[in-house]
Write a structure and sequence with these properties.
Layout lengths: L1 H5 L3 H8 L28 E5 L1 H10 L14 H14 L2 E5 L5 H14 L5 E5 L8 E3 L4 H13 L4 E6 L4 H14 L7 E4 L1 H14 L10 H10 L4 E4 L16 E6 L6 H10 L3 E3 L3 E5 L3 E3 L1
Parallel strand pairs: 1-2, 2-3, 4-11, 5-7, 5-8, 6-7, 8-11
Antiparallel strand pairs: 9-10
Length: 294
Amino acid sequence: EEAERTGLSDKERKERFCPTSQRLAICNRSLICLKPGNRYPDPYDVVITDEVEAFLEDVFLDIRFGDASETPWVDREKQWELKKRIDKQAKLVILADASASGLLTGWYADLIARERKEEKTLIVNDADYIADKVIRFIPNFYQALREIVRHYRNGEIISVHCGFGNNETQTMEACKGFLEHFGIPGEEIGLYYPDFLDKWEKEQTKLDPNAPTYRSKPDIVMNEEIAKGRRIFFNSPALGVGWSVKDVPIDRIVGLFNSKIFTATWIKQFLRRIRKARSEEHTSELQSPDHLVC
């Protein structure tokens, strides 16, 4: 408000604001304001880096941004070490840039994840697939499974999107065993992975080559499964399982991943797979999923 009233320039706004805030840096030059008296800042809960590709290019390629008359930037090596330390200590790191690349931003995300031994969630937001969505992150895998149990007990129908790599089938079976341990009947849990679907579809199309299958007509088959008592669907990302589901009464979408890096592209897969989900917690209208548990 003061800046608007007094007509401060962008440069003047930065110069006045940054020294007064130890929680927010406007650009790499103001990173040093987060380190008062040469003391490292306390760990942050969330660190958001917008235009991360530009930041990394500037640090490594010496590409300057801003007014050429500005005072010299803080030593780039110090910027780099301070930024890494801040990100490695944070509970959640969000890297955002419309031009994000795997070569630079992806490399940095992987570097932070590997240098920090504890589980780390990082988002590379390379498209606006999540702009109007509410996403809740659960850092512990088994805590996420307990959330599925809770939603099941609330009467919700749940789609679980999995990313388990080479151990997909075994991990799905283990998840099913965990849910059964908490009292969910096995027949209400469906595991839809490529090998199972290949056999199932072969049986379905034996008599009728045009019979709807889970991959070709997921709306029809998922609704048939729900009518038989299915309440939890574990969907493999391989082979387009369950793509473009539009008319299935899914209440909740949960993502289970055993990776330290979580990208916006994976979130896009949630949105493409289950285009309409309902959550009685917030709305009774059918709409795009607005509650994704990752």
